[in-house]
Amino acid sequence: MFLSDNTAPACPEIFAFLQQHIQGTTDLPYGDDFYTQQLNEFLSVIFDTDVWVMPVLTGTAANCLALGQLCNNYQSIICHESSHLAISESTAPVFFTGGARLQYCGGEIDKITPQQLAQQLEATHWNDIHGSPPATLAITQATELGRTYSPEDMQIFGDLCKQYGLNYFVDGARFANAVAARQCHPAELSWRAGVTAMTLGASKNGAFNVEALVIFDPQYAKGIMARAKRSGHLASKMRFLSAQLHTYFSNDLWLNNARHANQMAALCDRLLKQHSIETRFSAHTNQLFIRLTESQYHSSRDAGYEMYHWPLEDQGILKDYYRLVTHWSTSAEQIAGFADAIGIKVTKPI
């Protein structure tokens, strides 16, 4: 199934750790347990700076708890119009911020460009009481179309945020895939570029049901805990979430899983192009957007390779594409099976 990386199973390392170390033990509730208390130190090593970490059950809650702390209810959040915040979070950003609005900034089909952001900020009427001045920039890394921002672009965004007094947030549901694709240190795509807070996804990349909310500015930590309690996202048995993150970030599991997912997408991309199947972008992370005939789509679906229909604009024309997402457990055999389902005969191992 290529519908989403949310369809992936939990990886065996995390399952085994929970069975061996958590299942039969007791510990303190609400984040006072051993594994939650270790998270700050654990992720500080990964990011090479002091961080504050909170495990959260869902990406929506993680994103919006952070934004609620980074933006007042009379302000706005700058994001791309195709970002997850804009198209897939319902009214959660408004709910968690108490009324802040989303302010769209574009430049490309799925990415804010530094030039467009600079122009938008320069044109903002900062003292207009009738408007809603931006307080936070929200970047999706990797984007909804599987592409990534470079460390250089992230730094330019950070410089602009500093110049205009904005907080800087990263929705990192697929941050591991972005780091693996860019082959850089996670700090280059976060705090070194000036990022204030971010979410670092785990559920899509091998965990059961946890995301890490990472804060690089400690002044926001206490307020986020209070918001989590108020909104029902302070987990009583937080240790089960934290233990997943403990394993996820051990021995580079998070990056190895992401590298594999990216490699499977690249493998599929090469195979499809060899047989003249149109793709909207070359595979960068673990998402592909492909053009199929109606017959090919139904054949793949009947064979168990479900995908989302995802129309995209291409040179001013809206075309029908299907989103194909690989994950940590996708195999070359599954890629070959999908190829066979759409009429591509694979005669040798891929």
Number of helices: 13
Radius of gyration, CA atoms, in whole angstroms: 21 Å
Helix content: 40-55%
Q: For the terminal residues, how far apart are their CA atoms?
A: 19 Å
Q: Please state the overall shape, judged from the principal axes of the Cα atoms.
A: globular
What pattern of helices and strands is seen along the backbone? HHEHEHHEHEHEHEEHHHEHEEEEH
At the first level of CATH, the class of the largest domain is Alpha Beta
The CATH architecture of the largest domain can be named as 3-Layer(aba) Sandwich
The amount of beta strand, in percent, is 5-15%
The average pLDDT is 95
How many structural units, i.e. domains?
2
Q: What's the β-strand tally?
A: 12
Q: Which structural class do you get from the secondary structure elements?
A: alpha/beta
**Major sheet, described briefly?**
7 strands, mixed
